[in-house]
């Protein structure tokens, strides 16, 4: 019987607050639900909270229907030689995993075991997974799908500010802004309740959106006289440099701020010399007049009410993503925005715990507290908390794309654990990823559904869902929130903390692993203490009282809702301005097709679906609204290829082929097509994206792939 709880949405980083109450059909005396239709056992209602103010999107409203979904995995499943998954007991499952790990380590060494985590795991699970990989499995090879999400913005933030926290200010600060410049973010579809925070700027003509498509968010700019910049995909960096050029050359920069709070300004001015608006227009396709107007409005806003620059995946998911985010930060520094109480720069984290997931040890190069794994002091601190010799903590592992490329290879990963990720759909060059999964000696997938990745697994382990567990998550503002248990999980399901604790015992791990979330959080507090993401002053009791807890929150402090007010996190308290200019894109991203009119493919999200769609495609209402991938294409581009409304098209390049229906749209450029990445199989957009990565962050190129498009003649 469900008990209900106040908790937060299981999906995106806005972490909208919701209440879960027993559904009428599950309350005593209401009688059984009709056998043919599994009605949700909990009812969802929006709860007042600063990020959502009671609002939820379609995904949030329908999230409870997955808890008792008929496709839920409720017992461990072992794949037989015929390829069919059949139930086994938990004892058998644990023995199989233990045997596979030991055998792999003996045959190939500990780094042949790998772990792929997820940005939806709670802080407790993310922390424990990092510790489990390094101590129980003894491998350096752990990374997570957050690498695909905002690693480039994180790298740029660390470089400029000395620390990366998605939004270094509360979301509510945006309400009073005069100007908000959104670069590559379609919040109207990805996190609709966020739009209310844009209203003030939008109504006064201060909303500026850069997006190759006239997305739902870009369309808002038409309401109040805002600006939509529609650059050629992959030219965002040049666009930002063009705006920065105007700021410098029209005397709009905040020179006092630059002198007092930054270093590197002179080199930035030199680097901008070649990016005058008319030249940038020729690179990006954005009219020089709009480039100038954007710079002027941002500068005017900074002096009158506040200006904010916010980046999203559209500008970050590129092979030059770190440089593009760096350019956006430089622009914000030129205008004096970061570290002001009414202006700022931020990046809009995507996944539910994308922020916390990267702070506590899931990343290949980090230890809890956002510590560098190569830093001797950090290693000594964490080793002391774990009660082990620091030499037992392996060094840096492989970033996500490299880890996936290594699957089944000599010196690569031969036995892989996947937690909370569906890489068969969400990773770039998905065909190659699926081949890699199939070449493994042993694949263990922890999930609550048979996702496309779970279908490839030797062993599927059923784990608890969001409403069945206690824990914490850290939202896009760096605010730590409580996830609360509202429902008893099905009998055969276990929490990942329990799983890691049992396996650690069986593998004779040199440290203890608790299966109690609060106990794990208490250990996380100690491990993070003194780090950049210090959680030592946060505990469950204060979160339960509703206190706002923004990190860094050292013990004895009151947390940090607004970062950088007194200085940046570098030793000299200054922000570092790093000059960046567009470079040569890697050969694989400039694939030459025999087609005389190649197009650029942009991938992205839809209102109804979340990430790989493993969850939302199973929600009846969401599936009915968006059941398949549609190729968005401009009518004239389609007509040139003999494609009409309702036709099927083949989208292809040297990595793969996608077959999907077309959706004619005037909102897209004529040289660009768009595919959502939520769908598997024939409609899987990531069959076409490439695994080339940003050299600084390891971010793959999701937003600019060269493709050919033709009408499908037979289906
Ligand atoms: Fe959930 Fe994000 Fe929708 Fe809010 S905006 S209800 S957190 S998916």
Automatic annotation (TrEMBL):
Q: Which InterPro entries match?
A: Asp_de-COase-like_dom_sf, MoPterin_dinucl-bd_dom, Mopterin_OxRdtase, Mopterin_OxRdtase_4Fe-4S_dom, Prok_molybdopt-oxidoreductase
List, alphabetically, the SUPFAM superfamilies matched: ADC-like, Formate dehydrogenase/DMSO reductase, domains 1-3
Biased composition range(s): Gly residues: 347-356
Record key words, sorted: 4Fe-4S, Iron, Iron-sulfur, Metal-binding
Q: Give the signal peptide as a residue range, or say none if absent.
A: none
Q: Which organism is it from?
A: Arthrobacter terricola
The record ties this protein, via CDD domains, to: MopB_CT_Fdh-Nap-like
Q: Its Gene Ontology biological processes? A: respiratory electron transport chain
Q: Does the keyword Transit peptide apply?
A: no
Protein name per its UniProtKB record: Nitrite reductase
One GO cellular-component annotation of the UniProt record comes to: membrane
Where does the record place the 4Fe-4S Mo/W bis-MGD-type domain? Answer: 2-69
A GO molecular function assigned to this protein is:
NADH dehydrogenase activity
User: Disordered: where is this region?
Assistant: 345-365
């Amino acid at each position: 019987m469900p008990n209900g709880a106040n908790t937060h949405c299981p999906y995106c980083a806005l972490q909208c607050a919701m209440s879960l109450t027993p559904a009428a059909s599950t309350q005593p005396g209401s009688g059984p639900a009709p056998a043919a239709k599994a009605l949700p056992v909990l009812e969802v209602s929006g709860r007042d909270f600063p990020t959502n103010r009671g609002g939820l999107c379609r995904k949030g409203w329908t999230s409870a229907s997955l808890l008792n979904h008929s496709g839920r995995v409720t017992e461990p499943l072992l794949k037989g030689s015929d390829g069919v998954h059949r139930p086994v007991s938990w004892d058998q499952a644990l023995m199989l995993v233990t045997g596979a790990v030991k055998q792999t380590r003996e045959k190939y060494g500990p780094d042949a075991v790998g772990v792929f985590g997820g940005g939806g795991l709670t802080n407790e699970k993310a922390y424990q997974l990092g510790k489990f990989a390094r101590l129980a499995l003894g491998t350096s090879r752990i990374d997570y799908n957050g690498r695909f999400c905002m690693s480039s913005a994180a790298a740029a933030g660390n470089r400029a500010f000395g620390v990366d926290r998605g939004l270094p200010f509360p979301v509510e600060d945006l309400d009073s802004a005069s100007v908000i410049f959104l670069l590559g973010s379609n919040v109207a579809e990805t996190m609709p309740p966020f739009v209310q925070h844009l209203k003030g700027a939008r109504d006064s003509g201060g909303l500026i959106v850069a997006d190759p498509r006239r997305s739902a968010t870009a369309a808002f700019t038409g309401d109040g006289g805002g600006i939509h910049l529609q650059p050629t995909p992959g030219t965002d960096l040049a666009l930002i440099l063009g705006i920065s050029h105007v700021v410098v050359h029209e005397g709009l920069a905040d020179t006092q701020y630059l002198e007092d709070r930054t270093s590197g300004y002179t080199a930035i001015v030199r680097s901008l010399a070649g990016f005058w608006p008319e030249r940038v227009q020729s690179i990006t396709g954005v009219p020089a007049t709009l480039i100038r107007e954007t710079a002027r409005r941002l500068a005017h806003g900074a002096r009158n009410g506040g200006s904010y620059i916010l980046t999203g995946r559209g500008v970050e998911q590129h092979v030059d993503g770190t440089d593009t985010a760096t350019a956006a930060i430089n622009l914000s520094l030129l205008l004096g925005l970061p570290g002001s109480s009414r202006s700022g720069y931020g990046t809009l984290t995507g996944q539910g715990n994308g922020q916390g997931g990267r702070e506590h040890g899931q990343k290949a190069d980090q230890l809890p507290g956002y510590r560098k794994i190569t830093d001797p002091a950090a290693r000594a601190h964490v080793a002391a908390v774990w009660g082990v010799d620091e030499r037992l903590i392996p060094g840096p592992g492989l970033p996500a794309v490299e880890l996936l490329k290594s699957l089944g290879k000599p010196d690569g990963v031969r036995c892989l654990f996947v937690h909370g990720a569906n890489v068969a759909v969400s990773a770039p060059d998905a065909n190659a990823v699926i081949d890699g999964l199939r070449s493994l000696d042993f694949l263990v997938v922890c999930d609550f559904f048979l996702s496309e990745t779970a279908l490839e697994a030797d062993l599927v382990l059923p784990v608890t869902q969001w409403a069945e567990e206690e824990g914490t998550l850290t939202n896009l503002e760096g605010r730590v929130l409580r996830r609360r248990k509202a429902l008893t999980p099905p009998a055969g399901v276990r929490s990942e903390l329990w799983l890691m604790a049992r396996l650690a015992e069986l593998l004779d791990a040199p440290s203890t692993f608790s299966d109690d979330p609060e106990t794990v959080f208490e250990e996380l507090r100690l491990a993070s203490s003194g780090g950049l993401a210090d959680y030592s002053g946060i505990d469950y009791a204060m979160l339960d009282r509703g206190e706002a807890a923004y990190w860094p929150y050292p013990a004895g402090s009151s947390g940090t809702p607004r970062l950088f007010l007194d200085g940046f996190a570098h030793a000299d308290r200054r922000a570092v301005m790093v000059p960046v200019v567009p470079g040569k894109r890697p050969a694989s991203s400039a694939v030459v097709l025999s087609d005389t009119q190649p197009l650029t493919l942009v991938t992205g999200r839809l209102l109804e679906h979340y990430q790989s769609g493993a969850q939302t495609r199973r929600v009846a209402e969401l599936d009915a609204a968006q059941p398949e991938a549609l190729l968005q294409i401009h009518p004239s581009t389609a007509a040139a290829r003999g494609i009409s409304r309702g036709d099927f098209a083949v989208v292809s390049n040297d990595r793969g082929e996608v077959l999907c229906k077309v959706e004619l749209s005037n909102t897209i450029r004529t040289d660009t097509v768009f595919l959502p990445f939520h769908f598997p199989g024939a409609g899987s957009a990531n069959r076409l994206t490439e695994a080339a990565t940003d050299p600084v962050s390891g971010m793959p190129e999701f937003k600019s792939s060269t493709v050919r498009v033709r009408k499908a003649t037979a289906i």
